[in-house]
Amino acid sequence: MADVARLAGVSSQTVSRVANGSPGVIETTREQVLAAMSELGYRPNSAARSLRYGRFNTIGVILFGLASTGNSRTVEAIATHAAAEGYAITLIPVGAPTQDNVMGAFTRMGELAVDGVVLIIEVHLLDASAVAIPPGVHVVVVDSDAGDRYPVVDTDQADGARQAVRHLLELGHRTVRHVAGPVESFAAERRAGAWRQVLEEAGRPVLPPERGDWSADSGYHAGLRLAGDPECTAVFAANDQMALGVLRALHERGRRVPADVSVVGFDDIADAGSYLPPLTTVHQDFAEVGRRCVDALLGQIHDEPAGPGTDLVPTRLVIRGSTAPPSGTGG
Amino acid sequence: MADVARLAGVSSQTVSRVANGSPGVIETTREQVLAAMSELGYRPNSAARSLRYGRFNTIGVILFGLASTGNSRTVEAIATHAAAEGYAITLIPVGAPTQDNVMGAFTRMGELAVDGVVLIIEVHLLDASAVAIPPGVHVVVVDSDAGDRYPVVDTDQADGARQAVRHLLELGHRTVRHVAGPVESFAAERRAGAWRQVLEEAGRPVLPPERGDWSADSGYHAGLRLAGDPECTAVFAANDQMALGVLRALHERGRRVPADVSVVGFDDIADAGSYLPPLTTVHQDFAEVGRRCVDALLGQIHDEPAGPGTDLVPTRLVIRGSTAPPSGTGG
DNA sequence: CCCAAGGATGTTTACGTAAACATAGACGTC
DNA sequence: GACGTCTATGTTTACGTAAACATCCTTGGG
Q1: Which residues of A touch B220 (CB under 8 A)?
Q2: How far is CA B95 from CA A73, B92, B120, in A?
Q3: Do residues A282 and A161 touch, judged by C-beta distance below 8 A?
């Protein structure tokens, strides 16, 4: 900056004014400064700016991985929306969901140049770790039941699951089997809970859910078990990838979808419409989740008080070709 | 920091020494300082540190979106590996692959607190934009033909495609149809080029490729066109999602896979093994790509000279259930 | 023609940290 | 016991920026 000032024959303060578009710089001077800036390839030092302003204009995102569809799409939405607001995104990956790793992430985050953090990890892991979120760091949590302690933004998991199960019951299925996600996942538990609740309210039998790990492969193995049960005519899988595995298992065992068995997924990932058959599933608006996260965080950063509470983004059932009334045998 | 020093009864320099683990601090003093630090909840200001050191310990990643499987997995690998090296990742999303947007991303990057950048965007867009990478910012490019100007890390697209096409020819197919990715994509062009080359070398007819946009839906439409051609017995899709669409189209048109038509994909995404039938595909090692990006970038940052050149990560054909010799009719 | 007002620009200072240098005390050696 | 040496700690300074304040010049009115 000093070099630019020297070359342009002005003071560094004037350079600063030009760089920030402050008023009070005459046109000819501004042009000289701009010329000097481009000649020297000057670019402002953001570290010095941050030091001066006390802000980083950066949001941290702590997560376990981008592998899961939901995470990567939420992160993308956060990044896009934050960029529009002049904020950058710093990714803080946590290797495996262990206590040590979560602790490590928070330690690192403490040293990180962020004004706020979006947590896309299970908060009970946070509680288990003896690490508190550093005071002064603003937080928004995604996919969690921590609404009593933090501002939470989440898809309305329960309502989505209810729509899925009700759809199957309305088609005439006697009951609905469930392929659940891992117990550690709050979203998985919410979906399973809503599934159970709808069945109980309707007075239908509730068979124990199969348990998967979100992967298509785990869905396949769950599907093989379900395919062995001739009574099973409707399956609600906790995500689309497990639903894909279920479809494969049913196909291999000669059970037609949807003629013999109906299948519903959750997420509405881009590929779901191309499955065999195209998958009926619950659409999640990941972009909206990301957007609300950023808005909530920026609100906090800009000193708007933000207490705990849960902000639920609605879901919508997308009916495709994997669901139909049960065939004659069932009723 | 001054407060900590005052509370511990030492100078700020001693606090700094404790914070950085520098030698020359006696044990009792260190403990006093640590006690004061935790009492006051002190955490170092990374902006000041960056200003002092002239480094940010941060790597920027510029990309179009996380939607594509490859991108999100590469980014995840970059983030993980960078974290292990003490670097954070800043995500710089570019809305759409337009010249303006790319320019904007680079302008923002110029102001960003990064020591280096991984570019996961087509470099010809960069060239088209009248924006140069700011001098002093180190760059590594992924998925590009810019090996003559920048260090490039990439999957060995051509070899992967060759393996796929040769596999189909070796099974006895007369020729292989191709569902290509968008023309703007270097990876798509590389795969298409290798497909054509193998066919020409083998003296087989080269029919015009179908063109998709990576999505399963575009693969579906391409597949519908191919399904209408009874001569078509083997399809090489430029990615797994388009292959999924092709599978669906063939299924709808009553062409069995692999009995009537063999299909090969590219990427080996997690779900590929659960398609109907499980997809034969080319495995890409995204984690390795990410790792090499970080290594190359850190090498540059640490003043190891790094000229242009392309670092290719090998691929591997994964044979599953979607390929077989052509049925009697073909020969 | 002089002075007040206001706009353009320069000067000083502080942000939080750590390197470089300075100091002061302890210890060993002859 | 005096001197050099080493260790623990303190003091000064600079990193690049922008707010706050100071200065200078122009302009217009009396």
Answers
A1: 274
A2: 14, 10, 13
A3: yes
Q: What are phi and psi of A210, to 5 degrees?
A: -80, 155
* Alpha carbons within 13 A on the beta-carbon side of B291: 7
What distances in angstroms separate CA A325 from CA A174, A321, A330, one per listed residue? 10, 11, 10
Could you give the count of Cα atoms lying within 13 Å of A89 in the half-sphere of its Cβ?
31
Select the residue of B56, B76, B215 nearest A270 (Cβ to Cβ).
B215
Which pLDDT belongs to residue B128? Answer: 62
Query: Whole-angstrom Cα distance, residue B24 to residue B44?
Result: 20
What the block records as the tokens of B259 is: 């009995």
H or E segment and range at residue B179: strand B177-180
Give B170-206 pLDDT, tens digit per residue.
999 999 999 999 998 889 999 999 999 999 999 999 9
Q: Which of residues 280 through 299 in chain A touch B, CB cutoff 8 A? A: none
B161 interfaces chain A, CB cutoff of 8 Å: no
Q: Which nucleotide is nearest to A18 (CA to C1')?
A: D18
The tally of CA atoms less than 13 A away on the side-chain side of residue A294 is: 24
Say if residues A262 and A234 touch (Cβ distance below 8 Å). yes
Residue pLDDT, tens place only, A79-100 = 999 988 889 899 988 877 666 7
Q: What is A161-179 written as a DSSP string? A: HHHHHHHHHHTT-S--EEE
> Looking at this protein, which amino acid is placed at residue A129?
S
Find all residues with CB under 8 Å of B323, minimum gap 6, and list them.
Answer: B167, B168, B171, B234, B258, B262, B263, B264, B280
Q: pLDDT tens, B69-86?
A: 778 889 999 999 998 888
- Reported pTM: 0.89
Amino acid type, A308: P
SS3 B263: strand
B301 contacts B115 by C-beta, under 8 angstroms = yes
Residue contact A271–B244, C-beta within 8 A: yes
Tell if the CB–CB gap between B113 and A56 is shorter than 8 Å: yes
Radius of gyration for chain A, computed over Cα atoms and rounded to the nearest angstrom: 26
Q: Are A60 and A112 in contact (CB under 8 A)?
A: yes
